[in-house]
Amino acid sequence: FELHDLALGRSRVCAVMSWTGRLLGSGWRRVGWFGARSSLLKSATAIATAYTVSSFVRKRRAEAFRLGDADKLTHNVYTDHKLSKRELRFLEYASIEYDDVIYMSPMDFIDSFTRDTPRERIYRRVLKETDVKKMLGNTPPLRKGSRDLFRHLDQGGLISYADYIFLVTLLTKSRDNFKIAFMMFDDDDSGRVDKEEFMLIRSLMSSLRSTRNAKKQHHDQCQLDMTEFSFVVTHMQDRLFTGSDNYSIAFSKSEEEVKREDTTILLHLFGRRGRESLTFDDFMVFYDNLQYEVMEIEFREFARGKKKISPVDFALMVLRYTILDREEYAEYIDRMADRTAENQGVTLEQWASFSIFLNNLAQFSTAVRLYTNADMPVTKAEFARAVQCTCGEKLADTVVDLIFAIFDANDDGKLSYREFLAVMNDRLHRGLKARNDRGWTWKDFKRCVINEMSR
């Protein structure tokens, strides 16, 4: 909830109390002395209900603030739920606003995967319709896609939050997993995906609305006409049971209109008129180009103009974004420095093979489940064979040696899969594992009502 709703809530409760008072007054006037007791009982019930509802709203708002409203204020964003880690990462790097919706540029997206912090800026760029049309007009079609597409577009494109999730999925899943995703997009089983089918899945993701320029409606009157009562009841139901509050902030476009807006990804995949349809092979061209571009940018950053990255730099890349405390992190780096020589570098091709292995980490984990369940260490040969069987890529002996230099705690030539998989899973997802926070439910509301009425 927005902070200004705290003050707005008092106004609404006051309005309900005013309406209750009118009921009480009308009860005395209309039914006279003989009906006064019945009217008084009904009015008292209405007052108790209003108090209970207002108490529930206050508690929910306080809980919502504790669960992340500070993040919403920091990023000037409106949502009806707690911001997830992925949403926070998107908001940290997104540098564009258009029609009160927050977008990334293509380079913002690359930065979110290859930089530890976003580039310095004061505010997001607020674009006009003419700017957006000109920007999107420069989007190349898929047949002209390349391994430097995002770098070429730089700041000249729009990537919505739904696009961002789609791209993140491509970068963290294997080809086999993406084949399943393609089948989900292909609603009519034609072997091709058109724009409408793609939009159907894409529309399940909400946009992130900016509140910096949104019009906020404040209510200072503590009065309520009887004709407005139906609206207030409906509005309170929305707030209590769906968490939405379209009454407090007015946006220029509806959520449905925003989801239909063209973006760089839509135009690149389906053409400017949206009439193109894509086969799985077409999608894989885009998938491969994206994978290579992100992997190459990260490699070039650590290579510093050289053809190889050093063993310590390889360890830094492997441990990047992992959830480790300082002592654990330092221990891994020290192992690598002590056990390797400077000439044991990793080439771009070898790093590419390792990146493909990371995308197949789920399949690899399944293949070695027997070892992990029994907590059995494995040798380098067993490790290399498991990798090749699950992802079809043979890791270079140098890469295998460096992995064991990091994760072989006893330096006995054996690796603990459990520790290795936990750290690599963090690396794959850039430390952005999804939360399982439980939202407010009807049971929570009933418990709150019982607690208040029993006081």
UniProtKB/TrEMBL annotation:
Keywords noted in UniProt: Calcium, Membrane, Mitochondrion, Mitochondrion inner membrane, Repeat, Transit peptide
SMART domains the UniProt entry points to: EFh
Cellular component per GO, a single term: uniplex complex
Residue span(s) of domain EF-hand: 173-208, 395-430
Spans traversing the lipid bilayer: none
UniProt GO molecular function: calcium ion binding
Listed name of the protein: EF-hand domain-containing protein
